[in-house]
Amino acid sequence: MKRIATWLGLLVVTVAFGYPFWWLVSASLKDRAHVFDNALLPDPFSPGNYAEVWRAVPLLTWIGNSVAVGVAAAVAATLASALVAFGFALFRFPGRNLLFGLVLATMMLPGAVTMVPVYLEWHALGLATTQIPLWAQNLFGSAFYVFLLRQFFLALPREVFDAAKVDGANAWRLFTGMALPLARPGLVVVFVFELKAAWTDLIKPLIYLREPDLYTLPRGLQAVLDRFGKGGEEQWELVLAASAIATAPVVLLFLVAQRHFVRGAVTQHVER
Fold first, then answer.
1. Residues contacting residue 143 through CB under 8 Å, at least 6 positions apart
2. Helical segments of 91-202, H only
3. By the 8 A CB rule, do 191 and 79 touch?
4. Cβ–Cβ under 8 Å, residues 164 and 174
5. Long-range CB contacts (< 8 A, 24+ apart) of 250-253?
6. Cellular component per GO (predicted)?
7. The pTM is what?
8. Cβ–Cβ < 8 Å for 198, 69
């Protein structure tokens, strides 16, 4: 009976989370008159919406920009955060706990607080209208990712690192040759988290990007909404088709990386 209740609960949660995506795909395959009829299956079936929106706007360019920015942001955040986390996990130095607490305290600052001064810095460098501000800030790491990866590094046996030091390994060798391979599940989780965050980010592209050729997908979807949505031509089927195209890569990414999410969650659970 308990197992049945568990499966029923999981089914309800699955339907609750899966229905919006199903509705999005279904509505994107309807004609203009039936977009909002809430039918689960499109009738009439209009797959031409995808071809039409693909011709109307440079989706391929926006996808390429999002991939480039997302990968750069994810790599920068993962490596920078891992380096800082490794330092806090392995080394003992005066004020370590205080400094780590200050790093975590930065999570209390809303992004809006630093938005203007950060923009002014990029403007002074002459890069305020490029894609560089969308990912280069991650070169300084992320407090949340530092905390997450520090937990993975702390779970590694310290004796292994001590033995490597005796054999002459320096700190960089310990980090690249031992810590990173052993903490791979955590690194994958951080990489996917940041890639998803960069893929769906709209605020920074709205601030920094001016030329349509530099738009990422979220910024491009805003342009699609302005043109085909409310206040435009009201071709909502095209807006939804573009939204489905933008959502599909994130879903595929999660399906590919889900085993690493599970492994990372299990590791954290065992640590507790």
1. 103, 104, 106, 107
2. 96-105, 111-124, 143-155, 158-166, 171-174, 180-182, 184-200
3. no
4. yes
5. 250/196, 250/199, 250/200, 251/21, 253/192, 253/195, 253/196
6. plasma membrane
7. 0.84
8. yes
**Which residue shows structure tokens 């797959």?**
47
Residue range 111-149, pLDDT digits in tens: 888 899 999 999 999 999 999 999 999 999 899 999 999
The confidence score (pLDDT) of residue 254 equals 78
**87 Cβ contact partners less than 8 Å away, ≥ 6 residues apart:** none
pLDDT at residue 37 in the model: 84
**Sites in the chain below the pLDDT cut of 70:** 231-233, 260-272
The pLDDT assigned to 260 comes to 65
Residue 135: φ, ψ to 5°? -130, -25
